[in-house]
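RECORD TYPE: inverse folding
INPUT: structure tokens
STRUCTURE:
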């Protein structure tokens, strides 16, 4: 169903050098406070996450950063009186964000008197001294005066803290581990989606399910199974599988390329998908430019080189499985060593020594 854009537009009620604040008062006992992701642009008209909240008729407080700075405290403190006047009117205050926004949702939860926190792919910090060994892609935004010491501490956090992340993503897993010291910590893994966890719950119905989970209306296992079903239709899931295949050494590049093309159909024009697709196409082209030997051909080559004859059926049955399973230079060295230690080779070497 199509809704007029005006329905999703928030009412901007405050602005300073750092942030814009929007408020849509739709009544009820709950307000969702949203924090935008890194590449969401401040435009003075709308806030991140507005559409599903409007459809669900949930009161919303949108906090939008004017810079890519991870919501430093100063910007919110300047609006403290206004923010507290709004949040204290509601029984339930849910802070919600993705990536940079997830950090804001966690870090300012106590300040906003949050009862629940929904953090998708959260970051604990962008300070190189803390995360530089596993996270480097945000280093260009790092400012020592703002980001040193930015890791959230227990006294800054309130509410039940739900963290949605992909444990197969080393960076995201490490961020969550650095946040696991926080109170009421509840990790919720969504495997094989990479950093794009929030894309799994992009639909209004899926986001409503997340709220039901946060308020204890459904069990964790039911939520986990729901997320598994939802992710299968997302570009994030297809891209994550493609990237893992590419990193594994090219055994399934053709399959990964087909997944990548499906992802491109879902998220047409996405630059990262286009780059991944090109990398896969180049990997397949490079692989196909080399002629791969069959296992039986490798066994024949070894027999001719070491034993001086073609492999018989018995020899083929002995060595072909070993060649097929060989993955490393050491594996092949073991096969050669086995042939060199065979009785046939020793007898051949002995005959050669007598002849000479």
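DESIGNED SEQUENCE:
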């Amino acid at each position: 169903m199509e809704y007029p854009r005006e329905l999703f537009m928030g009412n901007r009620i405050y602005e300073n050098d750092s942030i814009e604040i929007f408020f849509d008062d739709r009544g009820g006992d709950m307000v969702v406070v949203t924090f935008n992701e890194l590449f969401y642009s401040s435009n003075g008209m709308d806030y991140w996450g507005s559409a599903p909240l409007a459809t669900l008729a949930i009161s919303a407080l949108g906090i939008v950063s004017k810079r890519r700075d991870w919501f430093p405290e100063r910007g919110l403190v300047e609006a403290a009186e206004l923010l507290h006047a709004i949040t204290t009117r509601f029984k339930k205050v849910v802070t919600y964000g993705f990536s940079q926004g997830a950090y804001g949702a966690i870090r300012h939860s106590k300040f906003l008197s949050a009862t629940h926190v929904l953090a998708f792919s959260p970051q604990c910090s962008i300070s190189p001294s803390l995360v530089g060994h596993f996270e480097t892609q945000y280093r260009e935004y790092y400012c020592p005066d703002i980001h040193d010491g930015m890791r959230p501490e227990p006294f800054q956090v309130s509410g039940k803290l739900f963290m949605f992340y992909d444990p197969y993503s080393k960076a995201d897993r490490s961020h969550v581990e650095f946040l696991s010291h926080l109170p009421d910590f509840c990790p919720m893994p969504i495997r094989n989606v990479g950093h794009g966890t929030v894309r799994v719950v992009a639909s209004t119905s899926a986001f409503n399910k997340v709220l039901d989970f946060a308020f204890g209306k459904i069990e964790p296992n039911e939520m986990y199974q729901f997320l598994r079903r939802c992710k299968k239709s997302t570009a994030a899931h297809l891209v994550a599988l493609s990237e893992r295949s590419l990193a594994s050494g090219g055994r399934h590049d053709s399959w990964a390329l087909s997944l990548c093309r499906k992802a491109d159909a879902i998220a047409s024009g996405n630059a990262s998908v286009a780059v991944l697709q090109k990398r896969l196409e180049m990997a397949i082209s490079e692989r196909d430019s080399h002629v791969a030997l069959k296992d039986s051909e490798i066994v024949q080559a070894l027999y001719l080189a070491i034993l001086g004859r073609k492999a018989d059926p018995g020899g083929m049955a002995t060595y072909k499985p070993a060649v097929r399973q060989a993955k490393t230079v050491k594996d092949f060295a073991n096969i050669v060593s086995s042939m060199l230690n065979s009785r046939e080779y020793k007898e051949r070497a002995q005959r050669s020594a007598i002849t000479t």
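NOTES: Confidence is low (pLDDT under 50) at residues 1-9.
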